[in-house]
Amino acid sequence: MNLERYEYQSGKDYLDYEFFSEGPKGVIKKGVRFTLAQFNGIYFYNLAFGDWSEELRSLNDFSVTNNDDVEKVLATVASVVMDFLEHFPDTIIYAEGSTPARTRRYQMGINKAWNEIAEQYEVFGIRPDDIIEPFRKNVNYDAFWVRRR
Amino acid sequence: MRAKTEAKANTVKILPAKGSASNDVKNYENDPMVIKKLAAAMKRIERVGFPDTFVK
Q1: What pTM, to 2 d.p., does this model score?
Q2: ipTM over cut 0.85
Q3: Smallest CA–CA separation between B44 and chain A, in Å?
C-alpha cells in the first residue's frame, strides 16, 4: 500500500517547500522550512512545518485545520524530508512537534512506514526524560533526529 | 511465513519525491514561527545533545 500525498514544490535551494491541503475546510497552504544550525561544531537542519496564515503573514504551527487529511499531510511532509535528504545526503535533521499531540502524530507517521524508513534512515527519538535512543515503535518521544544510512 | 506476509501487508510505503523546484515558493528563513521553532530546538539540543553515533 502506498501512502497518498500531495504534490509539493520546493524553492530553488531546497530549503523551503510548499503544498496545499484540500478538504472540507477548503484549500490550505502548508510550508516546510529546513534551517541550518549548529551546536558544538555539528551542523544540522531544524524542520519547521505549519499552515500559512494570511492574517499573521507567517507560518502557524498551532492552527487546527481539520481538513480530514492528516495522514496525507504527514505523508507529504515525510516525502519532503526524503527529497531534502536527496539534495543534502550527509546532513542531520531535527524535528519536534509544536505540542506533544503533534509530536505523537509525527511518531504515528513514522510507525506506519517504519519498515521502509528503517531501511534507508537512522531515526533516534528523544524521550521526555531527555534520553536519546534508536526509534522504537510505541514509545513516546518529544523530538527526533534523522539522517540517511 | 504468514506472519511475514501479514507484516508486509500492514506496512505502508512513502512514495519517492513528488515535487518540483520553483521560484514561486516563499523563502521562510525569517518567518517568526521558523525562528521560534529553532530557538525551542536549540534549547533542547543544548540539554540533550546528539545521538552518540552522529558525533563519532
Answers
A1: 0.87
A2: yes
A3: 8
